[in-house]
Amino acid sequence: MSNEGQEYGIDYLNLADYGVTNEEEQAWDPESSLPPGDYQFEIIDCQKKAAGTGTPQFVVKNKVVDGEFAGRQITGFYPLTEKAIGKLLRLLKAVGMTLDEKKGFSPKALVGKRYMGTVVEEAYKKKNPITMQEEEKTSVRLKAERPIEQKAA
Prior knowledge:
Elements: H1 22-28, E1 37-50, E2 56-64, E3 73-79, H2 85-94, E4 114-127, E5 134-146
Antiparallel strand pairs: 1-2, 1-4, 2-3, 4-5
């Protein structure tokens, strides 16, 4: 048995005990990120969570359902603010959902719904907290959610 992990008082850390699945492991692999383009997605999970800033947001986990990248995942973030609520409304429209009479919806009803989305790569600058220098970073994000039969604008 290896001594790896001994300094932490453990011999082996099984991340499956913390809910990590093969799909999640692949999602953390940088080589499994989605290149920019249009994809058909299926919603596999959604939750209301607080962003790092404390702002409430709706977090939607999606997987690609066909093509070369089928099974790969991307997470969409939908801030629950007056300024940004249109993004969530666009997703609801893309999957054919409408709000009820109280202007709400059941998040569980989103799971299994499909839509088209566009993955884009964006550059941004972030200050390194150690060097205090700004660094160029890139991230991929999901946008332009629309019904499956629509083309990107």
